[in-house]
Amino acid sequence: MKKILHIIAAPRGEESRTLKISNAFLDSFKKKHPDYIIEELDLFKEKLPELTVKRVNGKYILLGGKDLSGEFQKAWKDIVKHITRFLSADRFLISTPMWNFSIPYVLKQYIDIIIQPKYLFQYTGQGVEGLVKDRRMVIVTSRGGDYSPEGPAHSYDFQEPYLRAIFGFVGLTDIAFINAQPMDASGPQVQEEKVKQAQALAKKLAEAF
Ligand SMILES: Cc1cc2nc3c(=O)[nH]c(=O)nc-3n(C[C@H](O)[C@H](O)[C@H](O)COP(=O)(O)O)c2cc1C
């Protein structure tokens, strides 16, 4: 069976506006794609491996074109486990609120763990080659303020450009964003309306995803 990996970086469970939108996406996705397994990776519940000095040095061995062996291979076991899980997915859904104009720290930690040479990218004579090919991603975000392109806060959005850059770097260029905003700055009525709008967009996107 095919798999969609739902990477969750929203810790507030049922209170989460981000997850309300992702759940609408998944409800539609399930109907449209009964052949897919939905696998959840909740980054606030998962004990992600720390990037210890040994693990960081392992990355430099790979960057130098060598394979890991001995103590480095052992130290990298949990990193490779996460990379393998990521690469086993055919589609990706990321749920992330904006935190301090960017992403919650657990999502950054996850990115630091999985974006590795030899596994997700490699250097060639022509430059960098992303190794995650022919896969698609949807990213659902919600933000307290409004960072839409036509608004004055747009240049403070380091979330969407960063996520597009880092996943594009490894070959994932087909990324659709659903950004619900503003969630806090304009009161509960606007928040509710914007969540509904984002849910409607999520359902539409899921049908074509
Ligand atoms: C630690 C933290 C940092 C935040 N930083 C920002 C921010 O920089 N800009 C913004 O517009 N909202 C910020 N917010 C508000 C959230 O983005 C907003 O409430 C979002 O809808 C929360 O998503 P959730 O309901 O899924 O938890 C922050 C919230 C938290 C908890």
- Gross geometry: globular
- Report the strand count: 7
The end-to-end span amounts to: 16 Å
- How much strand content do the residues show? 15-25%
Tell me about the biggest sheet? 5 strands, parallel
Highest CATH level, the class: Alpha Beta
Name the CATH homologous superfamily. Flavodoxin domain
User: If classified by CATH, what would the architecture be?
Assistant: 3-Layer(aba) Sandwich
CATH topology: Rossmann fold
Helix content: 40-55%
In this entry the ligands are:
flavin mononucleotide
Order of neighbouring strands in the sheet with most strands: 2-1-3-6-7
Order of helices and strands: EHEHHHEHEEEHEH
Task: List the uncertain runs.
Answer: none
How many domains is the backbone divided into?
1
Rounded radius of gyration (Å):
18 Å
Helix/strand structural class: alpha/beta
- The helix count comes to 7
Task: Explain what this protein looks like in three dimensions.
- The structure is a single chain.
- This protein is α/β, with parallel strands linked by helices and 209 residues long.
- The chain has a single domain (2-208), classed as 3-Layer(aba) Sandwich (Rossmann fold), CATH 3.40.50.360.
- The protein has helices spanning 17-32, 53-63, 70-75, 77-87, 105-114, 159-169, 187-208; strands spanning 2-8, 36-42, 91-97, 121-124, 127-130, 136-142, 174-180.
- The protein has a five-stranded parallel β-sheet with strand order 2-1-3-6-7, sandwiched between helices. Strands 4-5 form a two-stranded antiparallel sheet.
- The longest helix has 22 residues, at 187-208.
- It is globular.
- 30% of the residues are buried.
- Flavin mononucleotide binds next to helix 1.
